[in-house]
Design goal:
The structure is a homodimer of 258-residue chains.
Chain A (H helix, E strand, L loop, with lengths): L2 E7 L2 E7 L1 E3 L5 E3 L3 E4 L5 E9 L1 H13 L1 E3 L4 E3 L7 H23 L7 E9 L5 E5 L5 E3 L6 E5 L5 H7 L6 H18 L7 E7 L7 E5 L4 H19 L12 H9 L1
Antiparallel strand pairs in A: 1-2, 1-12, 2-13, 3-4, 5-6, 6-9, 7-8, 9-10, 10-11, 13-14
Helix pairs in contact in A: 1-2, 3-4, 4-5
Chain lengths: 258, 258
């Protein structure tokens, strides 16, 4: 499994992806699932992938080498598309084609589903973020719900629903993203560090931050340590459940005799 | 969907279940999914169910009316089994038989999977908690991980992993359980109030608390209101992510020209 998170905020784009893959619980490995393409100052395309690694790797390769896609059926590739929306469309077509090819061969016996997050901008357009489904269609992230997730999303969703808004500062958002990953990693062995991170200021075409957060990363360890304490303190601020009216000893004895 | 939670602690048993069922997002309804059986002072069997409502209702009926089950194939029913472990076994056989019957008819086209949480004690035995799978087999809750969940479990799991222990007080556990439900309800429309609750002191055979928490419940509304604040305060105690070293204006200009 995998967990990837993209946040499209007023100030820009934050994307995070873990690196854990597994083919069965006894076959764990580490693979990069967040890739950056483009040229500083001209284009910036960040792609995070979840699901079948063979599907996403082949689809990426197809999109880089070039594919003939509707409506003109001319060869298009990630290096030459002129808008991030077109990059999302190209990647969607590549995912769809790859899944279709392999489903014919495997007749549905193998899980080949995959999904992508695609963020960035090309030229002088605004920065955008999309989620691409295995069928090739996609949706765009919007200010009402300023994040998109793929993979093992549920453990880390509530903290985003409660604390993230479109106006959240980029590095506060990165903190919330790392908290969301920390909650997921603590409850699910299929997601793990290192975590790849990219931060892009709105409408810029280079990453302001692009790094890998390893298991011994000082800030991540601080989050891991402090969050347990902070959560326990938060729980302690809420009074204990008050539905209980203790029964008298006589009533309890009577019930036991009943 | 559904969310049911059982906590087996040193001091006793706490079980919660929501009441939302859906057959498609346009077909929502409210059904009791936590049922109490037994006689005060003699036996106490609490059953929470998730999955196909037809499967769990028919299986409950079978267990109450009586089934011939291995190894003796004599009629056994929930009212006459002499141990809670046997009640779990009977319910498991009832779930398995019900799923098998209907799968023959539907040939796998209809989702009939179901699972149960079964807690309580019969006679003077200790209180125990089990989770029953659709195949009829089951596991027992143990102090290392003092809770079991069925249904929509992931949203509300991290807070249990971080704050619940075997030594948690029963009404603190009920508070954590309601928080776990609140997190789930906020992020998932398929789980909703009212929430049915039962609290049983260890080794007792009557519920100390058995109630339904409605949407306007004062304590639940307080949790709902306070938790958002408490969580934001907890997030604020952690410093913002510190990976960013702001680039100089000259460096940025150079990157834009590149």
């Amino acid at each position: 499994m995998t967990y990837c998170l993209g946040m499209m905020l007023r100030d820009g784009l934050v994307m995070l992806a873990d690196t854990r893959t597994n083919a069965g619980i006894d076959n764990l490995a580490s693979y990069r699932k967040l890739r950056l393409l483009g040229r500083d100052g001209i284009s910036m395309i960040a792609v995070a992938s979840a699901g079948s690694l063979s599907t996403t790797q082949i689809a990426m390769e197809r999109s880089i080498e070039g594919m003939s896609i509707p409506p003109l059926y001319q060869l298009e590739k990630l290096a030459t598309v002129d808008r991030i929306h077109r990059a999302a469309y190209l990647l969607g077509q590549a995912i769809k084609k790859t899944e279709q090819d392999w489903k014919q061969v495997t007749q549905g016996d193998v899980a080949l589903d995959a999904s992508l997050l695609v963020g960035g901008s090309i030229g002088r357009e605004r920065t955008r973020l999309f989620m691409i489904y295995g069928e090739g269609n996609f949706i765009e992230c919007c200010p009402d719900t300023p994040y998109l997730q793929i993979g093992e999303r549920k453990f880390g969703q509530p903290i985003l629903d409660q604390a993230l808004t479109y106006d959240t500062d980029l590095y506060e958002a990165l903190k919330l993203g790392l908290l969301s990953f920390n909650l997921t990693i603590r409850s699910n062995a299929a997601v793990d560090l290192p975590i790849d991170v990219v931060v892009v200021r709105a409408d810029e075409t280079y990453p302001e931050l692009s790094c890998r957060i390893e298991a011994d990363d000082k800030y991540y360890c601080e989050i891991d340590r402090r969050w347990s304490q902070a959560l326990k303190a938060a729980v302690a601020t809420i009074p204990s459940a008050t539905y209980h009216e203790p029964a008298s000893p006589e009533a309890l004895a009577a019930r036991r005799r009943a």
